[in-house]
Amino acid sequence: MSGGYAPSPPSSLPSQSSPSGNEGAMRVLTRPVTFVTGNAKKLEEVRAILGNSIPFQSLRLDLPELQGEPEEISKGKARLAATEVNGPVLVEDTCLCFNALNGLPGPYMYVLGTSTVTSLKWFLEKIGHEGLNNLLMAYEDKSAYAACVFSLALGPNTDPLTFVGKTMGKIVPARGPKDFGWDPIFQPNGYELTYAEMPKEEKNKISHRSKALALVKSHFAATGYHFQINGSS
Ligand SMILES: O=P(O)(O)OP(=O)(O)OP(=O)(O)OC[C@H]1O[C@@H](n2cnc3c(O)ncnc32)[C@H](O)[C@@H]1O
Ligand SMILES: [Mg+2]
């Protein structure tokens, strides 16, 4: 595990308390939220976007992903992560959706509304940026969107909450550094640069990830979770 917080006490389940008796129930978390991912670049972005807004640490773990609707994949990952960590966790699942493609077969593609959603980790490894472009060769419509579903589970056996962020754009031949997934082939609407060509701070202002995380931050602000970590109040 990495992150700025000391090792956790054994109990991590959220508890309910109402210290003054008239403020309603307040959730006390005895551990920071653990962001679980196998992807170092995602972690970099999440760290940069969250800053110090939520006490969090990270755990590098490649969780198995059940296929299904994006929210179900993300929730499934959160349930596995919460059991693994035995505490509050945040996970996310990202997908890239091609509006022109509908219902390509295979276990790693499924249809969401009118778009085809792919498990791009697998797809990227198999066919690369050029292959992804080629999928759209026969279509004039190159429009696409990047979507991100974060799931927050406060502990094992709790129902995860989901937060969705979406950024519209188009698929273009690869431009820019190739160090993060499909960033070189996604050009967000209103920009002449691909995600990969943009300065990181710029991507983090407009990305699917930052939009979903803005909702996560609002949730934390609105629910008033109280972190009581290692005796701190
Ligand atoms: O452990 P997890 O968090 O699941 O990490 P992952 O790399 O498996 O991530 P996903 O299943 O969500 O990602 C599907 C693919 O999309 C890529 N990806 C995710 N977010 C991206 C982003 O913001 N820009 C470019 N590629 C991204 C990622 O590298 C994978 O190849
Ligand atoms: Mg994954």
Automatic annotation (TrEMBL):
GO terms for cellular component: cytoplasm. It is found in: Cytoplasm. Transmembrane segments: none annotated. Binds 1 divalent metal cation per subunit; can use either Mg(2+) or Mn(2+). It comes from the Eukaryota. One of its GO terms (molecular function) is dITP diphosphatase activity. The keyword Cytoplasm applies. ITP binds at residues 37-42, 77, 93-94, 180-183, 203, 208-209. Its EC number is 3.6.1.66. InterPro entries: ITPase (IPR027502), ITPase-like_fam (IPR029001), RdgB/HAM1 (IPR002637). Pyrophosphatase that hydrolyzes non-canonical purine nucleotides such as inosine triphosphate (ITP), deoxyinosine triphosphate (dITP) or xanthosine 5'-triphosphate (XTP) to their respective monophosphate derivatives. The enzyme does not distinguish between the deoxy- and ribose forms. Probably excludes non-canonical purines from RNA and DNA precursor pools, thus preventing their incorporation into RNA and DNA and avoiding chromosomal lesions. This is Inosine triphosphate pyrophosphatase. It comes from Dendrobium chrysotoxum.
